Structure formats: structure tokens, C-alpha cells
Amino acid sequence: MPNGIRIFYLMAIVTALCLMTNGRAAYAQLPEPTVYEPPLGYRDDIDYGPYPTTVYGVMNPDLPDNDTCFLDADEVPIKWPQLYHAGEDWFRLDGASGAGSEVTAIENGVVVWISVADFYPGYVVIIEHNSLAVGTFYSMYGHLADVELEAGSSIYSGERIGFVLDQPGQFGDNSHIHWEVRDFADAQYLNNYPDACKQQAQNAGKGYTPTLPNDYGYRSPTGFFDFMTGHHYIFMPIAPTPPHWDVLMAPEEADQTEQP
Prior knowledge:
- The protein is 14% helix and 27% strand.
- By secondary structure, the chain is of the alpha+beta class.
- It has one domain: Distorted Sandwich (Glucose Permease (Domain IIA)).
- The strands form 4 sheets. Strands 1, 5, 6, 7, 8, 9, 10, 11, 14 and 16 form a 10-stranded antiparallel beta sheet that branches.
- A hairpin with a 6-residue loop joins strand 7 and strand 8.
- It is globular, with a radius of gyration of 20 Å.
- The C terminus is likely disordered.
């Protein structure tokens, strides 16, 4: 093959590769961190984490016994205490209000969605991450105030997203973040599931599922955190640390009889 033709083909291949990677250029400037950061407590040296009824994949008997938009096999509305938590609710563990606490990104990524969801009080932020270890995944942060980002902007691990929304509760302070690790950005895709709620809150989702959240593409946040860092924090998950990412797709169920 003449040298001129070889050069032409090489240039064509390089051009095609550049076009294929366009849109991911931000990741070239955002190397994968060696340490993943928790969404709360990065700078203030305060302990945060979930309560036993607000961890991932459990039913919360403290929720109001009201009907939801989820339906069972007989098309009867499922009540809130019968749903599984698709993320984790993190509070200040010293009993003080978490309102105003700084919320930070768990990993480098790109902000793909910011909005006030019709289901979540406050703002919701969704960040896309591209990890060599597990591929593309998304972290979601709900119940935020004073978000300081714009959609499409790059963000680094530990960089500020916003602050926890002030949510005074009827029986005590309810200021917390609901955060998720999941395989999708837009929760409206869940409408394709026959048992899913048909009123998904735009990209955010409902934060709960009628069966184990793994079935819908959610992952254990602290299970993921433990897997990626090898650290065991105060918010260590109920299930043992999974040995690889595939296990996070189907973690062990906690014994529902022991959950308050």
C-alpha cells in the first residue's frame, strides 16, 4: 500500500477516535481518585451516617402508613413501610441538626442534572462518574439547599455540591441527605418496569422500590464506598463487604426480623 494511502487511513482512524471520545473529554482532566470521599463530613470532622431504618435496602416501619403510587400484583397500592429504601439517609450522628452541613462529591465526575424535584424537598443533584474499576455509574444527592453547581460542569472528589436542607420534623429534626449510587441518570426509565411507580419524579426517582432496589439498578452506597476504598467507616453497611462489583448488583438481604 502506498505511503500516502497509509497516512490517509491513519488520519481517518485518529479523527474517528477523537469523535468517539468527544463528550467525555472532561474525564481526561479528571483522573480517578485514589481515595473516595463520603458525601458528608469531608471537612468538618463530624460523624454522619444512616440510622438502622435509613440504610440501603431495608423497609422503614417509621414511615407513614399511607398508600403510594407503587402497586402490587393485584394492583393494590403499596404502603410506605412496605417499600425498600433505594439509597441511604445520612444524619448527624451526634444528635444535632445536620442542616447547613456541607455536601461533597464522592468521586470525580460531571454534573448531569440539577433541579428541585416534585417529590424531594430541596434540590437534587446527579453526577456521572467514569471509573476504571466499575465503569460508568451515577451518584445522586437529595434534600439539598444552596447548590453551587451548574449542569455540565466538572466536579472533583470532595468538592462542594451544596448544603443539607433545613427540615424540621414533627418529632425531631429531619435534616439529612438522601444519596444513591445507581446505574442510570434518568429514573423515568423505571416506568418500563410493570411494578414500578408511574409517577417517577423526573430524573430523581422516588427513593424507594417495591422489591429489592438492586433489581432496578440501584447499588448499596456504603457497600460501593467500602468496595472502592477498602475502608470501614462508622457507616459500615449491614451486609459484608462485597468482593467485587457484580456482588453489589445483588447484595445479601438483611434479616428483616431484626430491623426496627
